[in-house]
């Protein structure tokens, strides 16, 4: 981070752009009307300090409108429990650990999650709308090493009500090409979900968990520090981007890169793996002890469930081990939303800290032509700080002794 | 770094802005479209410089001036650069007020600009780390230097746009920002730039 980045991180809460109509109403701007008259007519004296939210609410009431504070950036940013209340670091994680510790394990951990990625259609910040691309994934992972997985594409849809209105104003196109870091992608906004066909994963397919065999997985220690130590031995491509090369143990990472890798594995332990209750509790406790992990207060997940936001000290949110070159031009942060009372991981979401800017040279592609990463190709090119770029919501996670129904059964 | 987000969204907009200004000479209400296009981003920038209450005042003042002087806008520069130039002059008039806020932030660790603004605890924590040091350095900058570096960092303008906005030669802007960055760099602890939490 250089001094310019440091500067960009300062006062980001104030950088949120407001809707121009609300703004015009609040500052009382009308072409040809002098500021003095406006001020008398519309404004509170500026020495009378109210939080901005209240001013906006006052303006909304004055206009007989209530559709003010419903942008996703608001729900993501301030949560529902109000700002400023900081839980003791990791406290919610420790509560979750206690909640989950005493449960009973079944034969299979049955889970279902929806991943949402947000893209933008349009040419300018003022004239664009956002679309969320959705995919569901369902799995059964057995403690005996057997597992079954299925995937399903859901129709993409406009992200907010406002985006929906703009999409409709554009003629409700059912297919739409939008930019992404890997070239244009097509959104399908109408039509039905694809079918979900669940298939057994081949046995001994690369181990059951990050290369661990079923036996090694079962031997993971249920004590937080020992668990962390064991996970640091896991080998993989743990960086957000790196040239191809041999896998490395996670221990080779430092600082935020290590926290990111540990939290990715922790997410799998809690969300998809057949993790016994004691190990599940240890996972929460391990996370609570990581430097930079913070509880942020109450919020709601993308399904509207209430939970506690946990902020993770990550320095990149792109999937690990997939890319050999950078794919993002902004900076981001990651939050978990957990329900401490049941010890459930409800969702993971990534938020913009600094919107994409500048460009970055990439190595030449297959055709040998020079390439670069450009803001105009970024799905989040019109995002503002605090807005969501992607999320994963865990809609189901439960023990079951029943194997999944397979096609033809 | 010089290729930051353009002030005006897309290439067609320049003509549109100019045409709207021309139309607004006969039909003042038409100017409202320029407010819709440019006010939210300008407002967000001024909020970051001077805090929300003053930002409301300055946005309306900026547009009042732009409206009153719209006959003088000849389209040689981008409308947005012209508008941000008016705003930059107004902000410079509040130089002392702005400096006071930076100094208070540096002294207390609480940023008066964010007073009463709903924010995340994490943002406060992040600000607490480097904010006060940066604020102290910002407090010591001249109005012109402050405009230049903050148009870059907070306004997300390119060097060329900053030059147009402040009506300065491009080389002068680059030199200015280079110098200011060196000052800011000195204000920051060097170890902050390295990853520390080696678990």
From TrEMBL, chain A:
The keyword Transmembrane applies. The chain crosses the membrane at residues 48-71. The keyword Transmembrane applies. Residues 356-380 are annotated as: Disordered. InterPro entries: CU044_5270-like. Keywords: Membrane, Transmembrane, Transmembrane helix. NCBIfam families: CU044_5270_fam. This is CU044_5270 family protein. The lineage of its organism: Bacteria, Bacillati, Actinomycetota, Actinomycetes, Streptosporangiales.
TrEMBL record, chain B:
PANTHER family: RNA POLYMERASE ECF-TYPE SIGMA FACTO, RNA POLYMERASE SIGMA FACTOR RFAY-RELATED. It comes from the Bacteria. Keywords: Sigma factor, Transcription, Transcription regulation. Residues 134-184 form the RNA polymerase sigma factor 70 region 4 type domain. Coiled coil: none annotated. Residues 34-100 form the RNA polymerase sigma-70 region domain. Belongs to the sigma-70 factor family. ECF subfamily. It holds the Pfam family Sigma70_r2. Signal peptide: none annotated. InterPro entries: RNA_pol_sigma-70-like, RNA_pol_sigma-70_dom, RNA_pol_sigma70_r2, RNA_pol_sigma70_r4_t2, RNA_pol_sigma_r2, RNA_pol_sigma_r3/r4-like, WH-like_DNA-bd_sf. This is RNA polymerase sigma factor. NCBIfam families: sigma70-ECF. One of its GO terms (biological process) is DNA-templated transcription initiation. GO terms for molecular function: DNA binding; sigma factor activity.
